[in-house]
């Protein structure tokens, strides 16, 4: 049971509940969750043998949300899942179980905010689980449904090669694999493969036989370059902003060249390959969805501003950790201005099916 | 499964890990834990059928520490328990189980500090459970050993009557039932009875049959007045300090009269009565111990200072909540000076068997 030690350069979401916090600026993530609601509900009602699961488990149904951050999205998601499980159990005329919900995130996550904002209606027992989901965070066969939304596109770390000057994958002057050399793309892809491999291995141990693993994350159609996406345009602009700031002496070249955002969007085919390689799951669902309302078109200045507030709440700690907190606002102010000038280009970017939803059942 | 709503005037320990934090000033509690170590070890080895328990539980052994605060004492305690369970299982030639440890405290406890200081040796899975242990915090039959040290003498709230001007139990000008009217003592005693009743009821649900409930807390021999204790002298001095500060206009009379410390020391006979009333447990151990090294005699100025640093870390938030944080230091500075003048009296106080240890087995 030795836990995997992981150097995490992907930091937790901004804590607390202030105006710049994740808890106050995660409404885009909330929309994603709503979109998933229907798919998850259908899955739980049709594919889960809840009656058998609780009978082997003291009448307690256990759910884990991995990468829960500080709420409130995790609470909505958990409520939806519990309602679906209850519907499932009503149909099979089972006794109402007790629910135990494991809220997992990195140990550095702001669990204090999570815990003080937990719903207190007594509909479930809530516990917090500190630890990286790229390792085991719960005992063997201890959970019936694992869900993770908007979390598994975060890599466990920046691929080593992209910050190694001597490597062909050295990603000088860029912040992501979007628009980068093919070696950089490959380094990210490999890192994702290793991470998702560890993720599936850990979940295979933690889930009971017949349990479900439900994942909502960034995705991309097979073969499409990331630079076709609005986020691709954003990362390119981000690199330009950093280089501008470097030229003004606000940050160093070394800082710019070693900064990379550890986010990866796989295709359904990539994930399918990794699931089959793992061998412990059957695939119940694997699709790309359209996160429709994400960015309206035509896009106005306020849309860009809102988008950036969300990105800042989500990635802020990554910038603070690398550049210091004194330049965070300037980076995002400059980035917002730059993107406001690119709305036409962003509008014409591919923004259709960029949310991957997949559901696996533990054999 | 409706959770009991409890108005908590007993606040969590001081958070963080700074010089005034609980985590840096709980060495007196640590000594208490060491004293308990031997008793708990003996109990687990002799009274626990660990083999049967894990066989009905997926080979996972579950331990809960209720009122864990921020560490590090809870980590030592849990390590000791795990070692004892392992010894027990080795003797019965059982497979080594996985351990899951539930760390519980109030939702306002500093779980962030707890989680970032967790040992990362992978010897157990750690989860945090926010909630008052006077209600249910875990599902039915979900835990094998519950331990709680230095926590259950904290009442769920100040007894209502002691802050009610129209009641005979109104505790004007005092901060505790030590040296107070018999109605005040009775109000505290009743509150403890109700709280311990709820505590036992919740644990009876959460523990599996054959599971152990192990408690270390403040105690007192039957019939002894609290004023015979060093803590009694401290509470009397505390009230005097508050009245002095009131006369200087630093705090109000209303504030002084409504401030009471919700701590109660029961006798073994009181606890035995409550356990028998509950009916779900057998008593495996019930004794008063001597927390020997607590205060050395003869007592010097440094001993008093250390004692007060501990009390401040433990009770500080109670004072801050009631009087505001601007007077905290002054209260404790004055109290320290006063107690330094009373060392002779403190030395002659009863300080023998003031730690209660009891262990119950779920029928």
TrEMBL record, chains A, B:
GO terms for biological process: methylation. Residues 9-28 are annotated as: Disordered. GO terms for molecular function: metal ion binding; methyltransferase activity. SUPFAM superfamilies: S-adenosyl-L-methionine-dependent methyltransferases (SSF53335). Gene3D superfamilies: Methyltransferase, alpha-helical capping domain (1.10.1200.270), Vaccinia Virus protein VP39 (3.40.50.150). InterPro entries: MeTrfase_7, MeTrfase_capping, SAM-dependent_MTases_sf. Keywords: Magnesium, Metal-binding, Methyltransferase, S-adenosyl-L-methionine, Transferase. The keyword Ribosomal protein does not apply. This is S-adenosylmethionine-dependent methyltransferase. It comes from Capsella rubella. The lineage of its organism: Eukaryota, Viridiplantae, Streptophyta, Embryophyta, Tracheophyta.
